[in-house]
Amino acid sequence: GRIESTLLSESFGEQFHLAFQPITDLATGRVTSVEGLVRWRHAAADRVSPQEVITVAEETGLIVDLGAWVLHEACEIATTLPEEINMAVNLSPLQFGRSNIVDIVSRTLKDTGLPARRLDLEITETLLLEDSPRIVDDLRALRALGARLSLDDFGTGYSSLRYLRRFAVDKIKIDRSFIEEIGRNRDHSSIVHAIINMANSLGIRTVAEGVETAEQLEIVRAAGCSEVQGYLISRPLRKAELDRFLTDRP
Ligand code: G
Ligand code: G
Ligand code: MN
Ligand code: NA
């Protein structure tokens, strides 16, 4: 209904904007990257979560055009940030199946002038689960362009460990559900330690997602995690707020 008709009108810039959530390095405290997250400008936006908007976009196939718009917007904004800060963009599996994502990324980098190494593409285990040669080729081609790959929501998918050998990724983002329970649930805590140890031994960086307390931050730091993202550091910010956040930090 309403979400779908918004998505159909082609002026995405009038209907959506991006929020940016900082991700910081645990060793240096510096911001390594920001994750661009789509936000709906509609009056009903406070009753409809970003996840619902994405789900409708996926069900209708409009995620292909919306995703291309998000990518362009995020890359353009990234060029205004300090050059040591990368831009992370979420890619839906449908953007692989229903469009030529390699061409889209390549064209967007050219159009915006963002160096490929400053783009972190967040993919999910669902994409890898398809296990298709086309997807393997696309992921290789994206890395060959110079873009980085992050495996998002890690630990929630299926037979995760297999993929780490088969698909080269630069980063693993440990799902928020594990971090949430880390001080309380011994199993979750063991899983987080195991993921971090495995990633470290493979030379893959780790990001703990959804860090909300100082205790959670200290636990993942002690476990050898590379980076953190979550409300403790910052909520997703509008561009002007992000600029202020970055100038207020060392
Ligand atoms: O802030 P948060 O509520 O933004 O995001 C909700 C969900 O929507 C998350 O799973 C996030 O990965 C996803 N999401 C946010 N922005 C985008 C986007 O531009 N593309 C895709 N595919 N997913 C997004
Ligand atoms: O699926 P993905 O990891 O891309 O989604 C990021 C989502 O997590 C966004 O909806 C973002 O708003 C949300 N998020 C980021 N940090 C926190 C946090 O510390 N706590 C909670 N509850 N959600 C968070
Ligand atoms: Mn993400
Ligand atoms: Na995630």
TrEMBL record:
Q: Which residues form the EAL domain?
A: 1-250
Q: Which organism is it from?
A: Paroceanicella profunda
According to UniProt, the name of this protein is EAL domain-containing protein
Q: Which UniProt keywords apply?
A: Membrane, Plasmid, Transmembrane, Transmembrane helix
Q: Does the keyword Ubl conjugation apply?
A: no
| Top-level taxon | Bacteria
